[in-house]
């Protein structure tokens, strides 16, 4: 049995400690807004926060989060009260098919926790590190830039 905190709630999971975290989140805990894509740490669809750090949850085993805080996109807001990042991305129509959106939002959230006044290039680098098949990443970049003060804006 492994206990960890998911979106503020203590969860006990009786699963193989070596199973990837993404499988536990999606299949055991039903948090299906965290997506599974490549399974190789490349696409970013499975990104969640462990503490304040963004991680590819397909690349870490359940045992690595024992006793830790995990936040998925479901822990940021709700449909009726979305997190400002979610609202900004939606308003910019940056979530097309929805496969990459949650992972990008979690990565950007972690990034903005470290860098309060990013450059446009920094934001672009974080967003573009995620694979996207419907071409909406540029809109996500614009949405984030509208939301945060950058070092290039007065
Ligand atoms: Fe984890 Fe692609 S599914 S990075």
Order of helices and strands: EEHEEEHHHH
> Percentage of helical residues?
25-40%
Query: Biggest β-sheet, characterized?
Result: 5 strands, mixed
- Count all strands and give the number: 5
Distance between the amino and carboxyl termini: 52 Å
Bound molecules: FE2/S2 (inorganic) cluster
Radius of gyration: 15 Å
Helix tally equals 5
Strand order of the largest sheet: 2-1-5-3-4
Descriptive overview:
It is a single chain. The chain is an alpha+beta fold and 154 residues long. The chain has five helices and five strands. The chain has helices at residues 21-28, 84-91, 101-114, 120-128, 137-147; strands at residues 2-6, 9-13, 47-50, 53-56, 69-71. The protein has a five-stranded mixed beta sheet, with helices on both faces. α2 packs across α5 and α4 packs across α5 (137-147). The N and C termini lie far apart (52 Å). 39% of the residues are buried. It binds FE2/S2 (inorganic) cluster. The site of FE2/S2 (inorganic) cluster (FES) has 12 residues, from loops. FE2/S2 (inorganic) cluster (FES) is lined by residues 36-39, 41-46, 56, 58.
């Amino acid at each position: 049995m492994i206990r960890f905190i998911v979106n503020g709630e203590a969860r006990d999971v009786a699963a193989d400690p070596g199973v990837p975290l993404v499988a536990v989140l999606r299949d055991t805990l039903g948090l299906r807004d965290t997506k599974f894509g490549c399974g190789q740490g490349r696409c970013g669809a499975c990104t969640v926060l462990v503490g304040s750090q963004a991680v590819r949850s397909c690349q870490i085993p359940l045992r690595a989060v024992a006793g830790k805080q995990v936040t998925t996109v479901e822990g940021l807001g709700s449909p009726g009260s979305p997190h400002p990042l979610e609202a900004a991305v939606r308003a910019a129509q940056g979530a097309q098919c929805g496969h990459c959106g949650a992972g990008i939002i979690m990565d950007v959230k972690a990034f903005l926790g470290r860098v309060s006044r990013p450059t446009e290039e920094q934001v672009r680098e974080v967003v573009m590190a995620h694979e996207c098949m419907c071409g909406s990443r540029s809109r996500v970049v614009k949405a984030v830039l509208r939301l945060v003060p950058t070092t290039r804006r007065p």
